[in-house]
Amino acid sequence: MVDEYVVNRTLDARGLFCPMPIVKLKKAVKEMADGEVIKVLATDPGSKRDVEAWCRKTGNSLLEASEADGVFTYIIRKGG
User: Fold this and answer.
1) Which of 16, 31, 46, 77 is the most buried (most CB within 10 A)?
2) Kind and range of the H or E element at 77?
3) Element (H, E) at 23
4) Measuring CA to CA, which residue among 23, 75, 17, 76 is closest to residue 47?
5) Mean pLDDT of 27-40
6) Terminus-to-terminus CA distance in the chain, angstroms?
7) How far apart are CA 67 and CA 50, in angstroms?
């Protein structure tokens, strides 16, 4: 079963390299309410590892992670 969610915000981190996607994600999530969902777009191949680790460390939920045509997409819910 797929979780249903509404994306409340989108962060375009394409063209940015470590650590900037995480720096921008941290800032964006800080402005969000618990339970809100953010979609992150990135082109840095290391972002997959970084986003997964950041979610584990901060208690946020990585709902989806995918890659298409060199663009990595992450769907994250604030606060689990």
Assistant:
1) 77
2) strand 71-77
3) helix 20-30
4) 17
5) 98
6) 18
7) 15
